[in-house]
Design goal:
- The structure is a single chain.
- 32% of the residues lie in helices and 21% in strands.
- It is built from four helices and five strands.
- A hairpin with an 8-residue loop joins strand 4 and strand 5.
């Protein structure tokens, strides 16, 4: 909208007012849409995990009280990342570039009774164990 208003001012068109409606109609007229930039798809199919969810998991959960059942997952927090969405013409494939390589890894967790765990930031090791194991064999 800022750029449209800039060009209107540069052409001395004083009656033009850039609005979201203007941008939406312009995108529709030129077949431009917002798309999510993605590079990965599901790695496990629903039919592969369904037997475990239906048969094994309920038996495991019966052995514990809800206060002792937790779910945790790690996520990457990118502090200097490029946008994941962009404007493109309809029908065009949209792919991105390499992602930032220096994420802050955070562990997020909660119990079955909604007790939240404090966030845990996972840092980088100066000398990772995986490389020490290789040193023994070299």
């Amino acid at each position: 909208m800022e750029k449209a208003q800039f060009f209107a001012n540069a052409m001395n068109v004083s009656t033009f007012i850039a609005t979201t409606g203007f941008i939406d109609k312009w995108k529709r007229r030129h077949s431009i849409e917002m798309k999510q930039i993605s590079g990965e798809e599901k790695s496990v199919s629903e039919e592969n995990i369904r037997p475990w969810l239906d048969l094994t998991l309920p038996d495991l959960l019966l052995k514990y009280i809800p206060e002792n059942i937790y779910n945790a997952d790690e996520t990457a927090l990118f502090l200097q990342v490029t946008p994941e969405r962009t404007l493109t013409f309809k029908g065009e494939k949209c792919s991105g570039s390499k992602k930032q390589k220096d994420p802050l890894t955070v562990l997020v967790g909660t119990s079955l009774v909604c007790e939240k765990l404090p966030l845990l930031a996972i840092g980088k090791s100066k000398s990772p164990r995986c490389f020490r194991v290789l040193d023994r064999y070299l």
